[in-house]
Design goal:
Shape: elongated
Helix content: 55-70%
Structural class: alpha+beta
Length: 791
C-alpha cells in the first residue's frame, strides 16, 4: 500500500511539473551537467529567421507605391512584435531562475582564502554560460522589437506622405474619355498581372476541388453559407430571446436588443469567414498575392458588415418601439434598403480595387478604380439624401416635431457638402481626393453609429446597475453603506465619464482610421495618441487602471466601514464627550481619504519624482489664489486637534451665536436658534475673538428679568413674590442663589432686577418666558400692577 501511494505521488508530481523543465533544475540540486538548467529554447537560427522576417517586411514596405498597400504590412509588423513579446516572456522565467541559482552559489571566492569543490566550480561556470546566452537572446529580441517599433513609426510617416501626395495629385477629369481608357483597354502588363491572379485563384481552387475532396469542400462552403445567412438569423433570435426574458423591462432591454442585433451580425460573419478561409487553405497555404488579397478582403467584409449590422440595430424596422435614436418611422422606412445596397456595392468595388493593389497593377488603372468607386458611392449617398430630404420636408409640412432634429440636420448638411465637394473633385481631376471624401463619409457613419450604440448600452447599464430598485443597487447600498442619493450620483458620474471617454475615442477614431482599418490597427493608433510621452512619463499604463480603481473603491469602503464602527460602537463606549467623538471621527476620515488618494496614485503607477511640476504649480497657486483655502484647511486641523471649540458647543462670533453642528475641512457649520445654518471659515474661529459659552461643559445660563413698578408699591412684598416665583421654578438652580436687586429709582417708577441661574445657556429663553408668565399671574392675583410707560 505504501509503495502504491509513493508511485501515485511521483506520477502526480511529474504531471504538475511536466511543462516546466526549468523547475527541475531549481528543485533538484544535482551538480552534474545532465541535471543542470536547460539550454535556451531560442537558437541562433530562430533569431536569424526573425531577422529575415523583419527584413522581408521592410522590403514590402519599401516597394509600396500607394496608401492602401501599407495596411497589410502594418498588421504583419504588429503581429511580429507580439511574437517577439511572447518569446521574451518565455525566456524571462528562465533568466530569473538562473539568477537565483547563481545567487545561491555566490561569487567565486578568493583562491588565497578558500578553495571550492570542483563540482561547484563546474556548476557555476555552466550556469553562468547559460545565463549569458539567455541575456544575449533577450537583448537580441529587444533589438528586434525596437526595430519593429521604429518600422511602425516609419510606416505611419510613409502613409501620411503618400496620402498627402495622392490627395493633391491631379489627373484627368472623369468627363475625359482618356480617363476610362485603362479600364476599357488595359495595358498588356495589367492584363498579365490580372491573368496571373486568376491563375493563382484557379490553382487554389483546383487544390481544394481535387478528387476525393469534393464532399468536404462542399460541406465547408455550405456551412459558411448557412452560418452567414440562417446562422445570423438564429443567433439574432436567440440573443433577442435572452434580452427579452433576462433583461429588465426598460431602456436597458432596448439598448441590449440593439447591441445583440449588431453582435449577431458581426459574430456570424466572422465565423463564416473563418470557415471559408479554412476550406480554402486546409490543404495548402495561400500564395503571397492571395494572402495579401485575403487580408484586405476580410477588412472590406468587416466594414460592409458593420454598415448593415449597425443600420439594422439602430433603424429597427421590424420593431419601431425598440429603436434607440429618435428617428421617425417614415425616415427609417426610407433608409431601409440603402445600407444593404451601399455595403454590397462597396464590397464589390473595394474587392476589385484590392485585386489591383495585390497584383501591383499600374497606377492608371488603380486611379480609374478609385473613380468608379467614388462615383457609385456618391450616387448612392446622394440618392439617400434626396429621399430622406423629401420625407423630412413632408413631415415638417405636417407639423411633425419629431422631424426637426438639430443633430440630424447637421449630419444631413455635412453629408450634402461632402458629396458636393466630392463631385467637384471628380470633375476637376482630383480622383483620390473624391475617393477619400466618400470613404470618410462612410467611415464616419460606422464610427458614430458604433460608438452611439456603445454609449447607450453603457449609460443604460449604469442606470440599471446602480438603481436602488434592483438587486445590484441594493447589494451596493449594503456593501458601501450609502443612500439612494449617493447611488444615483455614482451612476451619473460613471455614465458621464464613460460617455466622455467614448466620445473622445470616437473623435480620435474618425481621424486615425478609415475603411479597411482593423480593430487592432485602430486600437494601436488610438494608444499611440493617448499613450504619448506625457503618460509614459508618469508611468501610467492601461493595466494599472484596474488596480487604481480597485484601490479607490476598497479604500473608500474601508474608510466608511471604520467610520461607522467608530461612531456606532467604539467611541460611544468611551468617556469622551460627543464633541470630542465627532472631532476624532472627522479627523480619521480626512486622514483616511488622503491616504486612499495616495494609494490610488501609487496603484496607478504615478512616479512621484515626475510630479515636481505639479508641486511647483501648487506653490504658485498657494501663493496667489489658494492661500485662503490652505489657511482654512490648516485651521480646521487645529480645531480638530486643540479643540478650542467642538461639535455641540454654543459659541458667539462676529454677532453670530449658535451651536456648532459640524467642523469640516474648510469651514464650520453653526446652527442658529431658528435652525438656519451659518458657514464660518475655520480661519476666523482661530484668528478672531470667540465666545464659547459651553466650553468645559460647566457653563450656566442667567435668567435675568427687569421689571418697572409704580412708586407706591411695597418693595419688600414685591421682592418676596419675585424670589418665590424663581425658587419654585424647577429649572432655577439653588446655587448660586437667586436675588433681587434695586436697579433704579426715577419719577416713572421703581426698577427691580431679578436674577437666577439655570443649568445650561440653551434653556435661558424658555425659562425666562415661563417666569414672566408666572410673575404676571401672581402680580395680578396680588393686585400689583406694573408701571405704565410715560405718555
Amino acid at each position: 500500500m505504501r509503495n502504491t501511494l509513493k508511485s501515485l505521488f511521483l506520477i502526480a508530481f511529474m504531471l504538475l511539473t511536466a511543462g516546466s523543465p526549468s523547475l527541475w533544475a531549481a528543485d533538484l540540486p544535482a551538480p552534474a551537467a545532465t541535471t543542470a538548467a536547460p539550454l535556451p529554447v531560442i537558437s541562433q537560427s530562430d533569431l536569424q529567421a526573425l531577422q529575415q522576417r523583419l527584413d522581408g517586411l521592410k522590403q514590402q514596405i519599401s516597394a509600396a507605391n500607394n496608401y492602401n498597400q501599407l495596411e497589410g504590412p502594418q498588421d504583419r509588423v504588429q503581429a511580429f512584435i507580439l511574437d517577439v513579446d511572447k518569446l521574451s516572456a518565455a525566456l524571462l522565467p528562465q533568466q530569473a531562475q538562473l539568477t537565483v541559482q547563481l545567487g545561491v552559489l555566490g561569487a567565486a571566492p578568493d583562491t588565497e582564502i578558500a578553495a571550492e569543490q570542483a563540482d561547484i566550480v563546474a556548476q557555476r561556470a555552466t550556469l553562468t554560460e547559460q545565463k549569458n546566452k539567455v541575456d544575449g537572446t533577450l537583448k537580441s529580441l529587444a533589438a528586434l522589437k525596437q526595430s519593429a517599433a521604429d518600422l511602425i513609426t516609419q510606416i505611419a510617416g510613409i502613409r501620411r506622405t503618400l496620402l498627402e501626395s495622392e490627395l493633391t495629385l491631379g489627373t484627368l477629369s472623369v468627363l475625359n474619355p482618356d480617363f476610362w481608357a485603362p479600364l476599357v483597354n488595359p495595358s498588356r502588363d495589367d492584363r498579365q498581372r490580372f491573368s496571373f491572379f486568376v491563375d493563382q485563384v484557379s490553382d487554389t481552387w483546383a487544390t481544394v476541388w481535387a478528387p476525393g475532396r469534393h464532399f468536404y469542400t462542399l460541406v465547408l462552403l455550405a456551412l459558411a453559407l448557412v452560418v452567414w445567412t440562417f446562422g445570423r438569423r438564429l443567433a439574432e433570435r436567440g440573443l433577442t430571446w435572452v434580452c427579452i426574458h433576462r433583461m429588465p423591462e426598460g431602456r436597458l432591454r432596448r439598448s441590449a436588443l440593439a447591441f445583440a442585433s449588431a453582435l449577431a451580425t458581426i459574430a456570424t460573419t466572422a465565423l463564416a469567414l473563418h470557415v471559408l478561409y479554412y476550406a480554402l487553405t486546409r490543404h495548402a497555404p495561400l500564395t503571397p498575392v492571395l494572402s495579401t488579397f485575403s487580408e484586405e478582403f476580410e477588412k472590406a467584409v468587416y466594414a460592409c458588415v458593420l454598415i448593415t449590422g449597425l443600420s439594422r440595430a439602430l433603424l429597427s424596422i421590424d420593431h419601431p418601439s425598440w429603436r434607440l435614436p429618435a428617428i421617425h418611422d417614415q425616415v427609417a422606412q426610407a433608409l431601409k434598403r440603402f445600407p444593404r445596397i451601399l455595403s454590397g456595392t462597396l464590397l464589390v468595388l473595394v474587392t476589385l480595387v484590392q485585386v489591383c493593389n495585390a497584383t501591383g497593377m499600374s497606377s492608371q488603372i488603380v486611379l480609374t478604380g478609385r473613380g468608379v468607386t467614388s462615383i457609385v458611392v456618391m450616387v448612392i449617398v446622394v440618392t439617400l439624401l434626396l429621399r430622406v430630404g423629401k420625407v423630412r420636408k413632408a413631415l415638417v409640412a405636417a407639423n411633425d416635431t419629431q422631424a426637426n432634429s438639430t443633430f440630424a440636420g447637421v449630419m444631413y448638411t455635412i453629408a450634402s457638402i461632402s458629396m458636393f465637394v466630392s463631385a467637384i473633385a471628380l470633375l476637376t481631376g482630383y480622383v483620390s481626393l473624391a475617393r477619400f471624401i466618400t470613404y470618410e463619409v462612410v467611415w464616419a457613419y460606422i464610427v458614430l453609429s458604433g460608438f452611439y450604440l456603445l454609449i447607450q448600452v453603457i449609460k443604460d447599464g449604469c442606470e440599471y446597475a446602480f438603481s436602488p430598485k434592483h438587486a445590484s443597487g441594493k447589494a451596493l447600498k449594503q456593501l458601501l453603506g450609502i443612500g439612494d442619493r449617493r447611488l444615483d450620483q455614482i451612476s451619473i458620474l460613471l455614465s458621464g465619464f464613460s460617455r466622455a471617454a467614448l466620445l473622445l475615442l470616437a473623435v480620435i477614431a474618425l481621424f486615425v482610421g478609415g475603411i479597411g482599418t482593423t480593430l487592432g490597427q485602430l486600437a494601436t493608433n488610438i494608444m499611440a495618441i493617448l499613450g504619448g510621452a506625457g503618460l509614459r512619463k508618469f508611468n501610467i499604463v492601461p493595466s494599472h487602471l484596474l488596480n487604481a480603481v480597485l484601490a479607490l473603491l476598497i479604500g473608500i469602503w474601508l474608510i466608511r466601514a471604520l467610520s461607522r464602527w467608530l461612531d456606532n460602537e467604539f467611541l460611544p463606549k468611551t468617556d469622551m464627550d460627543p464633541g470630542m467623538c465627532a472631532s476624532l471621527s472627522t479627523l480619521f476620515s480626512n486622514i483616511g481619504y488622503a491616504f486612499v488618494i495616495l494609494l490610488t496614485l501609487s496603484s496607478l503607477g504615478v512616479q512621484w519624482t515626475n510630479l515636481a511640476w505639479i508641486v511647483s504649480a501648487l506653490s504658485v497657486g498657494i501663493g496667489f489664489g489658494l492661500q485662503e483655502i490652505v489657511k482654512n484647511f490648516v485651521s480646521g486641523l487645529i480645531l480638530l486637534t486643540e479643540r478650542p471649540v467642538k461639535v455641540g458647543d454654543l459659541i458667539s462670533i462676529s454677532g453670530v451665536e449658535g451651536d456648532i453642528r459640524r467642523i469640516n475641512v474648510r469651514a464650520t457649520e453653526i446652527q442658529l436658534s431658528d435652525r438656519s445654518i451659518v458657514i464660518v471659515p475655520n480661519s476666523q474661529l482661530i484668528s478672531q475673538n470667540l465666545r464659547n459659552v459651553t466650553l468645559g461643559g460647566s457653563a450656566q445660563g442667567v435668567a435675568s428679568l427687569e421689571l418697572v413698578f409704580p412708586l407706591d408699591i411695597d418693595p419688600e412684598a414685591v421682592k418676596d413674590l419675585l424670589l418665590n416665583t424663581y425658587h419654585e421654578n424647577e429649572t432655577i438652580l439653588e446655587k448660586p442663589a437667586s436675588f433681587v436687586r434695586f436697579s433704579k429709582l426715577s419719577p416713572d417708577g421703581i426698577t427691580l432686577t431679578v436674577t437666577g441661574y439655570v443649568g445650561s445657556p440653551r434653556i435661558v429663553g424658555v425659562t425666562k418666558s415661563d417666569l414672566l408668565f408666572e410673575i404676571l399671574k401672581r402680580l395680578g392675583a396680588a393686585g400689583i400692577a406694573l408701571a405704565s410707560p410715560p405718555p
